[in-house]
Amino acid sequence: MNKGFIRLKIGQLTKADWNYKNDNDMILRKLVENIRRNGQVENLIVREIGEDQYEVINGNHRIDAMQLIGIDEVMCFNLGKISINDAKRIAIETNETKFETNEVLLSGLINEIVQEYPIEELRMTMPYDDEQLDDILKLIHFNPDDYDNTVLENDEEKQPTMIKCPNCGYEWEK
Fold first, then answer.
1. pLDDT single digits (tens) 130-173
2. What is the DSSP string of 35-94?
3. What is the pTM of this model?
């Protein structure tokens, strides 16, 4: 088969025994709630490993969540018959090619969302524990200009001062 999108029964899928992502009960519960609320918004990535059998390259924890919910059919992107090392490479590339979060902009987004959705509902689905979410919400009120931003003198060069939010640890270079 050529690469492409395919709908598969969960029974046709085998989780990768080489999956390097850690299990986390809190995140799994939040993932279950996300899928209940939004449905399957991300496709699984699979490779063919036998007659009507597929190995999950990316989405092993989503399979766990969908099974807990009782979903029996999922959308996948099938890579076809590729080697295990190709599968591992694609798993790393698709899992780890992520952009760094701008904590200040994230705080603004979440502060806007809490105007419409109760914070307790967000605690069920956002990928943060209660303390992390509270810190993110407080960051919107942090003003780096309220902190000392003097440049330190070094014998050879000037180094900028790092300003750190006391709530969440986000740092700015001044």
1. 999 999 888 887 776 676 555 545 545 556 677 777 766 777 66
2. HHHH---S-EEEEEEETTEEEEEE-HHHHHHHHHHT--EEEEEE--S--HHHHHHHHHHH
3. 0.76
